[in-house]
Amino acid sequence: MAIGASGERRNAVRKSQANVVERLEPPSIAPSLTTKRIVFGAPHIGEEEIQEVVDTLRSGWIGTGPRVAQFERDFADYKGARHTIAVNSCTAALHLSLVAAGVGPGDEVITTPLTFCATVNSIVHVGATPVLVDVDPMTMNIDTTRIADAVTHKTKAIVPVHFAGLPCDMDRTMAIAAEHNLKVIEDCAHAIETHHQGRPAGTIGDFGCFSFYSTKNITTCEGGMIVARDEGQAEQLRRLALHGMSKDAWKRFSDSKFRHYSVTEIGFKYNMTDLNAAIGLHQLRRIEDSWCRRREVWQDYMLALSDLPLTLPASAPPRSKHGHHLYTVLIDPQRCGIDRERFIEELDRREIGVGIHYLCLAEHPVYQSMFGWRPEDFPNATNIGRQTVSLPLSAGLSSFDVARVASAVREAIAGA
User: Fold this and answer.
1) Same domain assignment for residues 247 and 391
2) Rounded Cα distance, 139 and 326, in Å
3) CATH number at residue 143
4) 311 and 273 in a common domain
């Protein structure tokens, strides 16, 4: 009975895959023969964004002004947050949040080794020392069961990263932070739509830092946002984002009466412009429709690739929402018969663009020199970093595009 049941399940999977291929792929055209390149992370821009940018250019005000203020309000409404501060990148958001959290020289900040370099660079910029805790091999998020062991008397904060849009275990993270009086700064660069146990990512910790880079789920070309819980810290973040000035240019020049400003602390040039916000306003208004389309693409990949010797990405746990920012597969040479670099070459030959998210931070020479990190110190992150490939995942992908990607993956594995 067990063997028969297993055979029935395999037949059901094959039938479902055939249905996906039939639904996605026009029968008269072979996806692998199509020459138009599928660009990894290409933004999905509509006519509304284009017109808003034109209107901004014609308005006479392109710096930080009314569109930035509207974008902040709209983002606050979407996240259910009280305080939002628009900045020019998620890197700026992380840096400012660390400053506002009081992190500085001599402090330690715990984070993950499987993240973009900006996460640890921001920690270094405030003079603190990043302390890496290896990831869970299934979720690819920081292994929260190991965080407590990394806490010392120097630890000041934890920076969990919601990798690929999959929420971290924030319950355990916040419990550790409360026990040791630590600040929590959520790196939500991948996690605009993500929820953990019904709570929006970025609103659980003390600060939430978001990215609107060109490859992100919504884009402002370049840009970021900080969600802050404390009103006083939010006001400080606003000042820090613009040189430490008490008034931005819109407040000084927007009507006939000039207003003086004071520099109250040493700040940075991290403000967002109205040109950037003009794009983001309409991106945000379509965010749920775009997320639903990316979820469809994700589900089609899962079904079309489920019988291949690949490690496919983890799904969100119950009562949580995956942001579906990245669709990552692991190419184990022993299982797949092909190594990661050749796999990428095969997809490139078929005009499929991919990404690498990410090499373990301990692989990079600068961190080896500064902190003595070695790849073998973080075996899970290192293993993932040497095998991971991110397939195209965008609301702008057509069903035919998805079929091309899936077909290219299958051909690359079959030809190994």
Assistant:
1) no
2) 13
3) 3.40.640.10
4) no
- Last residue within a domain, chosen from 285, 305, 328: 285
C-alpha radius of gyration, the chain, whole number: 23
- Residues known to be catalytic: 216
- Residue 102's domain comprises 47-285
User: Are residues 319 and 199 in contact, defined by beta-carbon separation less than 8 angstroms?
Assistant: no
Using DSSP's 3-state secondary structure scheme, residue 200 falls into strand
Can you state the angle between helices 231-240 and 90-100, rounded to 10 degrees?
120
CB contact at 8 A, 167 and 144: no
67 exposure class (CB count in 10 Å sphere: 0-12, 13-18, 19+) = buried
Q: Is the pLDDT of residue 263 over 70?
A: yes
Average pLDDT in the chain: 92
Q: What is the pLDDT of residue 415?
A: 87
90 in Cβ contact with 187 (< 8 Å): yes
Is the CB of residue 131 less than 8 Å from the CB of residue 108?
yes
21 compared with 402, residue with greater pLDDT: 402
The pLDDT value recorded for residue 80 is: 98
DSSP 249-318: HHHHHSSSS-----B-S---B-BPPHHHHHHHHHHHHTHHHHHHHHHHHHHHHHHHHTTSS-BPPPPPPT
Residues 278 and 300 in one domain: no
Same domain flag for 9 and 147? no
Of 185-189, 195-199, 246-250, where does mean pLDDT reach its minimum?
A: 246-250
DSSP3 helix / strand / coil % (the chain, rounded to 5): 45, 15, 40
Note if the bond before 213 is cis, omega within 30 degrees. Answer: no
